[in-house]
Amino acid sequence: MTAPLVRRLAAFALVAALSAGSMLVARGARKPFSPAAPQYRQKGPANAKILIVEFSDFECPACRYAVKPLHELLALYEGKVRFVFKHFPLRMHRWAPAAAIAAECAGRQGRFWEYHDRLYDRQEEWVNEKAESFLVAYARTFKLDMNAWQACRADPALPTLLKSELTDGANAWVGSTPTFFINGKRFVGAKQLGERGTTFIEKELEK
Amino acid sequence: MTCKEHAALAGRLVVGIVLVYAGASKAAGPAEEVAYIISAYDVIPRDFTLPAAALMPWIELFVGWALILGFQTRLAAAAAGAIFLAFLGAVGSTVLRGITLPNCGCFGDSLHLTAGQAFVMDLCMSGLCWLAWRESSSPASLDRWTQRGL
Fold first, then answer.
1. Are residues A11 and A103 in the same domain?
2. pLDDT number for residue A137
3. Which candidate among A100, A175, A181, B129 keeps its CA 20 to 30 Å from the CA of A191?
4. A35: nearest Cα among A190, A187, A182, A155
5. Using CA atoms, how far apart are residues B12 and B19, in angstroms rounded to an integer?
6. Residues A62 and A155 occupy one common structural domain
7. Chain segment B47-96, per-residue pLDDT in tens
8. Residue A22: which of B24, B37, B39 has the nearest Cβ?
9. Where are the domains of chain B?
10. pTM
11. In this complex, which of B27, B69, B109 lies closest to A15 when CB atoms are compared?
12. Could you give the CA distance from residue A134 to residue A103 in angstroms, rounded to a whole number?
């Protein structure tokens, strides 16, 4: 081989090695995340073959659009799927943490899913300066014990809980909401869930 | 070095660094996140979004490092120019079609730009690619080394 050709190959190898090295450094060490959540945020049999974990934000419109395909998926595989909801209030969503805490407190009175559905159904109604009055009104609609619900909202453990779920999301490299993990496999947004989720679940059930 | 050579060197270094940063930022997160943003542009068939998301960081890193080190500089500058023109077209088409992007996805999850900011950046990068491409001989480059030795 001639010297220029050897040098050209060496140059190519250097560029390729730097590209691969950058890729490895960027990926870093991925950390495992905990799918744990309080019982009232879980649905389906504990020993189900399929575990779906959703990281979601009550103020996010894309999460609202994902509710319908998710309900359809859960109905289709009823009894075969365990579903876990995890909070991932995005920084840019001002009212999302308050909504998450309000839903948690509804959950402590056994009404998490009703409150969850109401927040998504009426997202356009409450995401504004009047959020507080709507959160209270929804709690009244579900006939929650208002004293207990208000006391719960002041519980300092709840912001800590939200923070730990944000850490779980960060460990799982969640960058957008909603992000779903079906038996650990990631699906970002309603489109990915709707288009590839069913196929993936079928494959998992066949195993 | 002539003024033109200085401009070509600066152009290729800036574009190279931006591409390496963009590629590394995308590689840092999962491909599904990048695919989610790509699908928001609605410019390529949905079945191709995930393969495109997996491939894009590799292309950006390779072209970026090739520009920084000056390897096949004119080819790398042309490739980078094609990449930024494609991004420019994609961002412009979303504006024309009234699609609101959650973010441009240019830098994965590390830096969020609006469609307007991304358009200006892509335009500037395309111009710098042209500066790097028009110079047939690039100083401080692997090309010079492969042709002449040390």
1. no
2. 96
3. A100
4. A182
5. 10
6. yes
7. 899 899 999 999 999 999 999 999 999 999 999 999 999 999 999 999 89
8. B24
9. 3-139
10. 0.73
11. B69
12. 12
Task: Name the DSSP class of A40.
Answer: G
Q: Which of B20, B39, B65, B145 to mutate to test the interface with A (most CBs of A within 10 A)?
A: B65
User: Looking at the 3D structure of chain A, how many domains does it have?
Assistant: 2
Same domain, A88 and A136: yes
d(CA A171, CA A74): 26
**Same domain, residue pair A124 and A85:** yes
Alpha carbons A105 and A158: distance in angstroms, whole number: 9
As a whole-number percent, the residues of chain A with pLDDT over 90 amount to 75
pLDDT of residue A194: 86
pLDDT tens track for A136-146: 999 999 999 99
A22 and A57, same domain (yes or no): no
Residue A22 shares a structural domain with residue A114: no
Give the DSSP H/E element, type plus range, for residue A103: helix A96-107
Looking at beta carbons, which residues of chain A come within 8 Å of B145? 7, 11
- Domain limits at A202? 39-206
Pairing between β-strand A179-182 and β-strand A185-188 as defined by DSSP bridges: antiparallel
Q: What is the CATH number of the domain that holds A179?
A: 3.40.30.10
